[in-house]
Amino acid sequence: MRPITLPAILIAAALLPSLAAAQETCYVVPTLGAADSTPQLKAVAPGQKRVHFIKGASGSQGCPNDSAACRMKGYLVANDRVVVTAIQGAYACATFTGGAPNFSSTTGLLPLSALADTPQAAEGDWTGAWRSGDEQEIDISKAAGNAIAIEGNATYGGDDPERVARGAINAGQIGGTLTPDGDRAAFSAGDDGEAAPYDANPGDDSVCRVRLWRVGPYLLAADNLMCGGMNVSFTGVYSRGKPGQ
Predict the structure, then answer these.
(1) What pTM was estimated for this model as a whole?
(2) How far apart are the C-alpha atoms of 152 and 142, rounded to whole Å?
């Protein structure tokens, strides 16, 4: 992946071609989705040199198409892997998150013709210092038995000098110990700040709820926008870094 400075707005969700057909913007609305939702991993096909992200219809009139006017600055190269969350005609709504030091995450349209199937299995275990951009982090360590301990921090406004100067940065935290179900995990925030069992249909939707997936090299997270201050979310595609990054 080559340098990209555009922020991403992404929620880990199912591949939904029928919904995507009606969408003009490449993003997936904040929802935790069904329990059997499965994000799809794709790779830029061998032999591809530069595959640029493409603007959607809301980004520029007449887009998406392969013209220079619709082409974004960010691009991928052969074997870069992306998470696909929707199909829009001849394009996939995809997200790529790079590695250290910036862990930049970009969401946009990519030509389906430039993508190839790739193994979906998670690489490595759950543990690691997971990052998506510079405002989302989830640290996962081993706990007793097959359990994992999760500690996450996210902010909104940390990249805005004006908000920083005013002290107007919103923040959120998640944490707890739980046992994953294979490459998936889910929890709700308990009264004591620890992880509580996940409730897909809670009576009180103000309780922070989080779902996690492991797909290929990535950790994917989806929350209900109730895990911190206004606009704070852990939703995203995370790459594994080293502690302290």
Answers:
(1) 0.84
(2) 15
